Amino acid sequence: MWRFTAFEALLGPEDYNPDVTLPVHSSGAGRNAVARNARRSSRSRPAALKGRRGCERRAEGAMWGRLCGSGRILLLAGAARHCGRPHSRTQKLFSTSSVLSATEDEPTAPADSTTKVASKEGAAETPKQKLLKMIGDMKVEVTTKRKFQQLKEQEIKKQATNKQEGLHGGSSTFQNSAEDVQRSKPLNPELVQAASAVASSFPHNKEQAESELLAQLRRHEETTDKQRRGGTINICNVISEMTVKRQSPAQRGVRISNRISLEMDEDGQRIKPGRPSSHSDSGRSLKAGKRLNIFTKASPETENALKTVSSPTIWDLEFAKEIAAVTEQPPRNGFEEMIQWTKEGILWEFPIDNEAGMDDGAEFHEHIFLEKHLKDFPKQGPIRHFMELVICGLSKNPYLSVKQKIEHIEWFRNYFEEKKEFLQEI
Amino acid sequence: MAARRVGVSSWYRVLSLSRRCGRCSSTNTALGKTVENSEGAQEEIVLPRRKTWDKLAVLQTLASTVKRDPTAAHYMFHDDPYLMPKNSATARLFSLSKESGRNAAKYIIKEFPHFFDKILAEPNIPSLMPEICTPQIEGVSEEALRERINLRMVKASVDLFDQLLQAGTSISLETTNSLLDLLCFYGDGESTQEKESEEKEDLEESEVNASEQETPKRPPQRGSHPFASRWRENNNAERIFKIMPERNAHSYCTMIRGMVKHGASAKAYDMYTELLNDRHKADVHTFNALITAVPFLKDRFLERWELIKMFLNHMAQQEVQPNVQTFNAVLKTLRRCGGVGRSMAVPVIKEMEALEIEPSLATYDHLLSIFYRSADLASSGIISEVLDDVEKRSFTPQDPDDAKFFISAMQVCCDLKDIKLAYRLNKAVEKGDNWKFLDMDRLNSYWSRFFSLLCMMEQIDVVLKWYKEMSPSLFYPSPKNILDFLQALDAANHLEMIPSVWEDMKQLGFSKRRDLLEEVLSLMSRDQHPEEIQLAFAKCAEDIKTVHEQSGRDQASVEWTGSALGSVTVLFSRAGRTQDAWSMMERFQQINRIPTDLVMDEFLNCAKQTNSPDEAIKLVKLAASLGLPSSQKLKSRVEKEFKLSENQNARQKELRAAQGKSRH
Questions:
Q1: Mean pLDDT of all residues in B387-394
Q2: Repeats (PPR): which ranges (chain B) (predicted)?
Q3: Which contiguous run of DSSP H or E holds residue B11?
Q4: A222, A275, A344, A422: least buried by Cβ within 10 Å?
């Protein structure tokens, strides 16, 4: 948008082609349209100048043009159109400012030199201040007005640009321009009144006062021009923020930080306004689309070859820990707590098992049922009785292995074999 | 699995029993028949001589029989009824305290093993024994260095390495590499164990100093990187890397990973170019690290994407197969690439599919944040496709970011206000072991989002069902949840539930939150209700009154506001508790507030109903003393509606006279 303002400032005073004012009302969205209009207007400029030559009110228009070229675009629009079309309704507006406009013809040259003199005159002080204040106010009003009107007027404007190729366009354009002026009407009469008040307060030094006024206005023009260049960017920001906010009700829940980081990317460029991209998003799907085509699927052999890795490094260990921590949960009930204890090795393993911790490869029954080792002993009698007691004791002994138990029985067998003679004697 | 095993084996037993005796029993014909029919097939079954059990089978089966008790807090809080958490803050506090108690015990046994001389167990339990943290090998040798590296003693290892170097001993590449691993992982800082001992020294030196340092030096949080020290210029890792006589790919890779981990991305990239110049190949982890560093290397989105693509192409050239973490890293970087990310995310997913790499939950999490981070939330296409995929599979953790998926998915459901999606998501959470991805904090925020969505979108009875189902056992409602719940009750015209909600609020410790109190009071006092409801409301109001008036030793009591006072008065009046209402009326004067007309009207109604003209006169007096414009109206109402005794009439006249005076 501000690209245009530079252009307009260039054209401002001398060439009040009505087209020039049009893009002012176009919003950021219609940036292309602005450029298009600007181009067209520059093309049609010579014709416009020709048509305007001989226009009596040229000087007045120039003054307004200069005045408004900086900050008061709407006024410029009114003035410019007005001078192109002497009998329009807008003329009435300016007719009250006859004093001002009459003296404007030779304004610029002496302006600077007279400024200091004029500023000393106390009589002019209050109306002047009023005027200045109003100018200051106007700037604000115009900018806000611009913001609000943009959208509404954009279409009207487009129509206007289409029709207003030359100076003598159709009557519809005139209506539009009149409308514009009417919109800016609340400002105009005040300005005019103030100006006339200033003029009337200088019965003798009218011209001096006028030129002083003009100088002041020009100074204003310069500063506002500068500020507006900065200002328009600000306005752009304001508008862009407005668009952001307009989207936001849909996503009130999303945290602000998200919103900021999204709307303004780290590049500082703005992502193109959400709407157009959103449409492409809604049509997006995970199923459709092409792959990147960077990798080829590895054959199983190479995969296996890759899998032969050396001992895990500290990176692998810590990564494994981190992954395990993702799904680590405290136990939800007593049994789960027992599972955890079992894994830590704190708890006796379930099902409760007499053989837990005994790893001699022998089975339970081999430990307990030892009668089969008594085949070589007498079937009855005190020795048998004694041996039964021995195996009973052995079957209850958890500390000996099966082999040791058999050796133990073996020892008794040998013993009784050796003592057989003595025993038989008895 | 375990359950099935038990079931099957017992079924065999039944079968074999029935085979033995089934034929002779006439009652068991049906069973006998099936056995006969299938006998041909079952002939092969050989009963094992001995059944080996998984040591967890029985416990797992038993655990699967225990269901969540919706009225109870989490199992970890069952030890001590006094330490039952009331809200999410206390739950967090208590669970952390429990864990830190455990850590303290471990610390003691590790620091002072000589105090524990009766700890021998048969069989020995290694997990209860103190860890050995002191190096056993003395002297200067490569062996000793390796031991110190394994014990993760960063400083000691470096010192020993230097000593060895000075002595002119050559150190093998492998050992140097593992030393580099250690240095790069800890960023040349100290490992946690060493930090602890340092802290202890600080503590001994000066207690003031230590207490200051304690806060920043907290132990690393679970799942996140320990708060890493930054990569310093020419640190030990770089120094050792430079003086290494020979370097292999591993040395480069570990340097790159360390630099990325500790925030020296540009250096990591330079190191990668060095690696290429030395004609080595990087491994997949290094590429993953480099891809995560991309956002710090380039500013523009398109450049970032180009760099990612370059790394991926290098991987293909160097014949490095990507894994799921590679693609997660790509997507994580794409999260920070705005529009480019949105357009490139789908091709990345497609590439994964083509390589038959199963996405992990983190993949989906990144996808959601790429597509739903922007202001535009109109499209629900992506999330429902993601849910399609998630529903089909069960997940094991593969990426540290996996845990974030369910929360962000629920957030998207909330933003889209799509209750159906939320139900689908919740189904997916309950499936298999997926619930494990939500630890306690995440569980709380997941459910609180879900509950808010329910309050917004669902019928009130469904909301109530969910509320009963989840309230203390799954999550503790946040104040916002309660507010949402109250609004849902209001919308569904179920205001009679408010007393029970108030009970819950007291339980949760929200009884002093002014916003909630105001909401409860204004909802209760807004409309006239049937009598029993009014009585219940009045009880509530009394509770709220005590909340305002109790002056605890250390907690400041809530101050009355005009509207709260008015609501309580109205509630008392409507329940016919004239005395209580009057005491509230008096309080208006104490705190310099003015009762609204509605409050005074309600009070007068109450006075009339309970036939207590005294109170009515008192009210008129009060109104007059406050100089309210409505006092005239009240007075005439009192005169009209009450039969005043002589005495009362006199007082009324007095009042009028006083008023007249004050007017003149």
A1: 89
A2: 248-282
A3: helix B2-21
A4: A422
